[in-house]
């Protein structure tokens, strides 16, 4: 395999992981904001 292709795949997967984490954090914050006080505990 070409090293450029490997680097491109690794970079793409890294970006995908970061974007997924940010999206998950936004969704969790939204869910927590709409939850009741008892559910926070």
The span between the termini is 51 Å
Number of strands: 0
Question: DSSP helix count?
Answer: 2
- The helix fraction, in percent, is over 70%
Low-confidence stretches: none
Structural class: mainly alpha
Tally of distinct domains? 1
Provide the succession of SSEs: HH
Strand content: under 5%
Q: Using the CA coordinates, give the radius of gyration.
A: 17 Å
Which whole number gives the mean pLDDT? 90
Q: What general form does the structure show? A: rod-shaped
Q: What composes the largest sheet?
A: none
Description of the molecule:
With 41 residues, the chain is mainly alpha-helical. The chain has one domain. It contains two helices and no strands. It is rod-shaped, with a radius of gyration of 17 Å. The termini are far apart.
Furnish the topology, listing elements before pairings.
Blueprint: H1 3-34, H2 37-40
Characteristic key phrases:
2 helices; 41 residues
How do you describe this structure in short?
This protein is an all-alpha fold and 41 residues long.
